[in-house]
Each structure stands twice: as structure tokens, then as C-alpha cells.
Amino acid sequence: MISIFSTHYFSDTATFRFFYPILRWLFPTASRHQIHLMHFAIRKLAHVTEFGVFSVTIFHGIRGDRRGWRLDWAFLTLFIAVAFAAVDEFHQMFVPGRDASPRDVAIDALGALLVQTFVWAYSKWHWGPRPREPQSIEPSSAVD
Length: 144
Prior knowledge:
Layout: H1 2-5, H2 12-26, H3 32-63, H4 71-92, H5 102-127
Helix pairs in contact: 2-3, 3-4, 3-5, 4-5
């Protein structure tokens, strides 16, 4: 899906043609500038959402059939998501009507990070703290 969203079909111009009538209908007194700002916000929220969903998918793949949440799984998830975001933006340099933006990579990373925070919180709530390893109790060597 991310690769499809990177095509000319989802360029700024193409999505504006779709959203402009809807936003104009919802906000009839909004100026064209305000409509542009809303459109911009929708597009950036789409970045956050798509990379949030992507990071959950990656996390589940890394975790496999194990339970819970681990920091190394989250870091690997974030690394893969940000690397893919960078590759996706590089790809957009070659798509007519699209351009590459380091800001979009940062927004994608934010989406992945936000959702990983939710995954961590859900894991703590759902699975609770990790069970501690039983500690052996050594007999006292003190002589009475």
C-alpha cells in the first residue's frame, strides 16, 4: 500500500482535486488557504497512519509467536520503518509529480514511534510485567 501511495495517483495535486470539494462542502466559509492547510494536515496524518500500521506489522513479524514487548524488537522495528520511509522518499524522486522530502521521512518515523509507544503500553497492560526469575536462597553461613 505504501508503494501505491507513492505513485502519481496520490500526488499533492491529485489528492487536492479529491479533497477540495469535500473540504469546501464541510467548511463553506473557509478560505482557499485554510483548505490548503487542511489538505496538508490530512496528507501528513496519512503518513503517520500508514507508517504506524506498517510498524505494527513489522513488530508482529519480528516478535513472531513470542509474547510481550522487548526494546530490541522495537528498535529493529523503528530501524526498518525509517529505512523504508527513506527508500520510499528516494523512489518518489523518480515519480512525475512527486518529490522527496526529509520532512516526510521524519513524519513517517514519528508515526512508527507513536504506534510503537502504543504497542509498548498495550503490552504492559495486557501481559503485565515480565515474571522475575526465581532467586535461590542460600543457607546462611553464619554460625550461632
